[in-house]
Amino acid sequence: MSSLYAYGCSFTNYKWDTWADYMGKNFDMYVNHGQPGAGNQYILQKLAGSHAGGDGDKITDKDTVAIMWSTTNRYDNFFKGKWDTPGNVFNSHYDESFTKYIDPVGFEIRDCAFIHSAKCILELIGCRFVFFSLNDIYPHAPYENTINQIMPSTKEILFKGDYHNRIHDFNTEPSNYEIHAGEDWPTREQFETENLPDIPAEIKKEMCSTFNVKSFKELIDKKMWRCPDFHPTPAMHLEYLNAVLPDWDTWS
Q1: Which of 21, 40, 41, 113 could form a disulfide with 76 if both were Cys (CB 3.0 to 4.6 A apart)?
Q2: Are the CB atoms for 160 and 169 separated by under 8 Å?
Q3: Domains identified in the chain and CATH numbers
C-alpha cells in the first residue's frame, strides 16, 4: 500500500484543495499534517513524531513524504495540550516584550537547522521525499546543500516575488468589505466602478488602518478593499506543482 505524508502550514492544509491534496489522490493512504499558521518548528516536531510512531503514524522506506516549509518568521508553541501556531511573530498575539528579543536572521539560521534535521530523519528512514517552500529560505552556513534541495517557492513561481501580482486570481469574500465598512465609507460598488466620491482624510486613514496598507493609493492600486484571501486557489496550487514537479502525478 502506498502512503503520502504531507507537512506544512495553511499552504498545505486549507479549506480548499492544496498541492498536498492533489498529490494525495495518487496514494492508497494520504495523511496531511499541515496546520494553518504553522512554522518550521511545528513541521519538524510533527515529522519527528511520525518517525517515532506518534499520531498513529510510522513512516517506512516504502512511503513518500512531502513538506512545504513555511516562512522563518514564525514561532510555534505547545501550550495547554495543543499547538499554538499564530503565524508571523511580528503580526500575531506576541507583544513587544517577546518580539524585541527576536532576530530574523537568527530565526533563519534556526529554521535551516530544522530543515537539515528533517532531511537527516528522512534519509535515515530511506523513503522518497520532496521539499517545497512557501517563501524563499536563505541558505545559511553550514546548511547550504540542504536548503538548495528545496524546490523553488510559491512566492517565486506563482507570484514573481509579490503576492499582489495575482490579486485578480485570489478568492475574495464580497461581504467582508461591508463587515469592515464604516457608515461614511464609499460603497463596494463605487470601488468596483471606480466612481469614488471625495473621501475625507480621516476616513482614508481609517480605511488604511483597517486594511493594513500604508496609503490610500496602495489600497486602490493593490485592490485591498476586495478583501482577498492570499492563499493560492486550487488552480494555483496545481499550477505550482506542474511547474516545480512536472511528474508529480506519477508519484504513487
Answers
A1: 41
A2: no
A3: 3-160+232-250 (3.40.50), 171-229 (no CATH)
State mean pLDDT over 164-191.
Answer: 85
d(C-alpha 35, C-alpha 11), whole Å: 9
Q: How far apart are the first and last CA of the chain?
A: 9
In this structure, of 54-58, 85-89, 191-195, 229-233, the range with the lowest mean pLDDT score is 54-58
SS3 of 61-107: CCCEEEEEECCCCECCEEECCEEECCCEHHHCCCCHHHHCCCCHHHH
Is 139 in a helix, a strand, or coil? Answer: coil
Per-residue DSSP letter, 175 = H
Question: In the structure, what pLDDT confidence band is assigned to residue 179 with cuts at 50, 70 and 90?
Answer: confident
DSSP secondary structure letter of residue 172: E
- CA–CA distance, 219 with 228 (Å, rounded to integer): 12
Alpha helix ranges (H) inside the chain: 19-24, 40-52, 96-99, 104-125, 144-147, 154-157, 174-180, 188-192, 201-210, 216-221, 234-244
C-beta of residue 95 within 8 angstroms of C-beta of residue 86 = no
40-52 and 104-125 helices, crossing angle to 10°: 20
Please give the backbone phi and psi of residue 122, each rounded to the nearest 5 degrees, phi first: -70, -35
pLDDT digits (tens, 9 = 90+) for 119-167: 999 999 999 999 999 999 999 999 999 999 999 999 999 999 998 889 8
- Going by pLDDT thresholds of 50, 70 and 90, the confidence category of residue 87 is very high
CB 114 within 8 A of CB 43: yes
The four Cα atoms 87, 85, 241, 164 give a dihedral, to 10 degrees, of: -20
Q: How many CA atoms lie within 13 A of 10 on its CB side?
A: 14
